[in-house]
Amino acid sequence: MEIINLGATNSILNQFVAELRDVTIQTDSLRFRRNIERIGEILSYEISKQISYENKNVQTPLGRASLMVPCSQVVISTILRAGLPFHQGFLNYFDHAENAFVSAYRKYKDRLNFDIHIEYIASPRLNGKTLIITDPMLATGSSMELAFQALLTKGEPEHIHVASIIASKQAIHYIKEKMPAEKTTVWVAAIDDQLDEHSYIVPGLGDAGDLAFGIKE
Ligand SMILES: O=P(O)(O)OC[C@H]1O[C@H](OP(=O)(O)OP(=O)(O)O)[C@H](O)[C@@H]1O
Ligand SMILES: O=c1cc[nH]c(=O)[nH]1
Ligand SMILES: [Mg+2]
Fold this sequence. Notes:
Number of domains: 1
CATH topology: Rossmann fold
Organism: Parabacteroides faecalis
Bound molecules: 1-O-pyrophosphono-5-O-phosphono-alpha-D-ribofuranose, uracil, magnesium ion
Strand content: 25-35%
Shape: globular
Helix content: 25-40%
Low-confidence stretches: none
Order of helices and strands: EHHEEEHEEEEEEHEEHEEEEH
Structural class: alpha/beta
GO molecular function, one term: uracil phosphoribosyltransferase activity
Strand order of the largest sheet: 1-13-11-9-4-5-8
Mean pLDDT: 96
Keywords: Glycosyltransferase, Transferase
CATH class: Alpha Beta
InterPro entries: PRTase-like, PRTase_dom
Number of helices: 6
Distance between the termini: 38 Å
Number of strands: 16
Protein name: Uracil phosphoribosyltransferase
Largest sheet: 7 strands, mixed
């Protein structure tokens, strides 16, 4: 399984990640959502280099231009709710893509222990398609694994791109074990070393869903 950490190369991407993490900036929820969206756009561009292309002739006012254009059938899927602005970033570029949505939330058994619950899925058929699963945070990796399992009930994708912003080292190891190595590529903007006792990424950025949409009851 290929793991691509785009934050390891200097680019404007890291300014957006820094603003997501910064306690003095991240409370501006409009900027927080927009930064997530912008990172979605950057990851889309990078992922677009790995899909299939075909030749197309285009009639211009002055002649015919021959160029290579994407021909993969792309499905952008997102894990609610923090994934929503990230999804929009992908859709800004893959504007012809089909879309899928999966819900996942942590149901706490006590203060520290939880199970991930999936209650909702809306997806097209996935057979033979390029599936991009977007979620800004990969903490334990469980939400990603279970969302992927839920999506598999809709068919077998040809290739899977897992797209995230901050992943823990633990989540990277977990995803490597749980997802098909031969046809999964993982794209992240940062890999952080630790999880705290609540399974939040450290240093991470806090709770992405709450920062984007407000604290839930
Ligand atoms: O890797 P995991 O340990 O499963 O954690 C990561 C999940 O946590 C966040 O969602 P959260 O459960 O906070 O829901 P929310 O987006 O509604 O806030 C995030 O968007 C992932 O889906
Ligand atoms: O660090 C984390 C872990 C789960 N969900 C988040 O939003 N942040
Ligand atoms: Mg959350």
